[in-house]
Amino acid sequence: MSQSDILCKTLGERVSVRVFPSQMVASIVVARRIAELIRAKQAAGMPAVLGLATGNTPIQVYAELVRMHREEGLSFANVVTFNLDEYYPMPASSALSYVSFMRKHLFDHVDIPQEQIHIPDGTLDEEAILGYCRDYDQKIEDFGGLDFQLLGIGLTGHIGFNEPGSTPDTVTRLVTLADLTRRDAIDTFGGLAHVPEKAITMGMRSILQAREIVLMAWSPKKAEIVKKALEGEISAEVPATFLQLCPQVEFILDRGAASLLSEYV
Ligand code: GLP
Questions:
Q1: Of 137, 182, 159, 175, which Cα lies nearest the Cα of 236?
Q2: 36, 78 in Cβ contact below 8 A?
Q3: Pairing assessment for the beta strands 7-8 and 16-20 based on DSSP bridges
Q4: Measuring CA to CA, which residue among 213, 216, 195 is closest to residue 204?
Q5: What is the pTM of this model?
Q6: Which residues pair with 17 in a beta bridge?
Q7: Whose CA is nearest to atom 12 of ligand 1?
Q8: Does the C-beta of 157 come closer than 6 Å to ligand 1?
């Protein structure tokens, strides 16, 4: 990959946006950035605290990280992860759980110690959720916050499962999924009736406080919501718009996802 493969354009004053010719090239760039962070923290004898996302969007980033582990000796021994969300209820053993997703795409293939992996628990009794969520946020804080947060974006403008109505001060909690979000998951679950109605999501607060944030989006399917997130009025109606207020955010897009942006040519 050479520099000329990368169409690079900064849109607007506040948020940096980079548009790549393909999601493959973009994913490699993001994976390298994560690898650099991991190595820098290793050199300093510190943990690299990563907030991780699920969904189709980050799959190639994880594939590249696994390749770097296998072929370039990138170690995950100092990596601590906090996943954004999990469906509720959801047994970890289900093929549809985000636990299974993360094992399949990343954790089973790298040397991260099991106890350094955190994914919201979809098996809790309802009365245990509040305390569990408090502990989840506390653990993030105990590690000094997230060094890096990887994000996709849902069609409602959700980040994690922070659906419309989520304000920047929200904490990790049990949420009800938006209708559009559930419909978007129909193929995965084999019918709307099988899509869970709830999820546990990391709150907006921990996400927005991450020291680096990368939101990735691919394909024209995401173009409209990406435009709203970057150019729309900042409002809880589209939670991703709060990223406009964060100077540490970068949007990494392919041409399809960027196709409706007014400053993209
Ligand atoms: C799910 C996840 C989000 C993700 C979004 C987009 O709802 N909870 O974290 O960003 O979907 O999914 P995809 O990447 O498959 O488009």
A1: 159
A2: no
A3: antiparallel
A4: 213
A5: 0.94
A6: 251
A7: 55
A8: no
